[in-house]
Design brief:
The structure holds two protein chains of two kinds. Chain A is 68% helix and 4% strand. Chain A is mainly alpha-helical. In chain A, strands 1-2 form a two-stranded antiparallel ribbon. The relative contact order of chain A is 0.13. Chain B is mainly alpha-helical. Chain B is 68% helix and 3% strand. Chain B has 22 helices and six strands. Classes of the chains: A mainly alpha, B mainly alpha.
Amino acid sequence: MSDNSPGASETDGTTSANESAYWSQNIRLLWTLMSIWFVVSFGAGILFRDFLDQFSIGGYPLGFWFAQQGSIYVFILLIVFYSIRMKRIERQYDLDD
Amino acid sequence: MATQTLIYLFVGLSFALYIGIAIASRAGSTSEFYVAGGGVNPVVNGMATAADWMSAASFISMAGIIAFSGYDGSVYLMGWTGGYVLLALLLAPYLRKFGQFTVPDFIGTRYYSKAARVVAVICLIFISFTYIAGQMRGVGIVFSRFLDVPINLGVIIGMAIVFVYAVLGGMKGVTYTQVAQYCVLIFAYMVPAFFISFLVTGNPVPQLGLGSPVNDGSGLYVLQKLDLVLQDMGFAAYTSGEKSMIDVFCITLALMVGTAGLPHVIVRFFTVPKASDARKSAGWALVFIALLYTTAPAVGAFARLNFIDSVQDTDYAEAPAWFRNWESNDLIAWRDKNGDGKMQLGKGDPFQGAPLFAESTGPSGERVVSNEAADDNPNEVYVDRDIMVLANPEIANLPGWVIALVAAGGLAAALSTAAGLLLVISSSISHDLLKSTFRPQITEKGELLAARIAATAAIVVAGYLGIYPPGWVAQVVAFAFGLAAASLFPAIFMGIFSKRMNREGAIAGMVTGLSFTFLYIGWFKLWSPDSNVAANWLFGISPEGIGVIGMLLNFAVAIAVARFTSAPPKEIGWLVDKIRVPRA
């Protein structure tokens, strides 16, 4: 997403302001959700696992739980949230299918 | 009824079901053959995607790999599910909006280049054949272990079944068969899992069982007990793992990105009616996949615990029946190093390499193994990891019909993945190579016939690879994911999110990512396997994880080249605008 400056789409003169606004709102949402994706799997499950393992959830050390269970549940929630939220955004810009 | 009869019955019924569905949903046009006419309900497609995705490896091998690697097994759990987030958020809806038949279609059109399309076809065929050889082998193995059919005959029966529904039905037939296969495989996976979880912890839900105390009155949690037992035997703790952090990180990322770049997965999202359905469908697919993927680590842990309990320090003469069953199937071997007649487990190899059985029996009645000795460790037992799922019902003393179910489930997993792969191979040949590149004048009927011939040829090649597996197949599964991550994913991603990315950049990026990853994996896995140790790896990243570096190289080269070459034509900008917006 790094090389997608919002200005780029205005240069060809065909993208309407409405579509650009829609797209940049989508990109913002993607940044948020991809950050969560990164944090639960690579963060909690790998990089900070040792720290999290001092806590536990039932008989699971917390970092281990994120690596083998929790991250997968969060992945599902991310897709469900994105799906619902995007539908709303698309309606708002009158661009839904 | 005898277990053997039940197995024949279950497997026979499931095959009849698949063929019946295929005949009911034959494909009549190229659109039906390639993308099921684009009219598949998103939930149905999610289920088909789950069956397509979960292969013989997911069903048979994954729990066993986790059982023997503990925390390190997390790379597969996160890697093979996290990719669906990338798919749903970054690729699937836009590719669906683009609305063509294949992945090379998108790359060829977006980068206005036949060369780019052909590069994509080469990546696709290489990735898919690597993957499919393993599936046909899996079919043969299930046949030989459960049905007493020789492996080769098993592969041929599998080829015949796939032939009927992939060649006749195309994507339409495959989709609805995959739905049936998902139901068979998930039921077959969950039933023994409920039983074994209940047996070990008293809680039938495996996801909760893995976090519960063991049912043996010790008051220890499952994972605590496993850690203690394994450390006693000289292993690392189950929950700690032995891989370096950077390697775990890179393997997980390579598998995620690779998943999102696998053509047979992407193409499933071309079959739903709308872009928003593609998102929804990816969510459903992940729900159906997660059911098995959150169960697998529990099955692995319980099976490991059960296995140790029933084997460690047991007299061979008193070994449970399943132990000898699977010994006679070559999956277990025992060499009594200290001559005490008891089986001892521990860290290290019981002998060198996979067991080579001699015809004779040893003093305790065990099958003698003629391998070279490995006497630097006390471990006496060789176990093939696949046992953790295949023998699970027997280890847990479950009734015969559960064993029959596992056989049918393993076949469903292997056949559904094989069919999906065959389809993308055949459509890339008939559509991308013939119709779009070398023979544009071909009629729709001719193209459909070509697709069927290509699918038939692909089945024959896959069967051949299954019967005569080249030594490299098991070694190069890393190829499929690494190459998908390093070649296809960046090209598709930049095609959607960057309007400035042009033909020159994309091709240079794909070629760089592909060659780097290919050479790195090839060097350590094929040409110089002895040097495949952490000390020699680039940044300590194993061949399994190197796709990440290949991907970064792809991005870097593509962006640099695109900067110094001319921008794509105006129409491409319009095309990108069009795919970014769901409304037609």
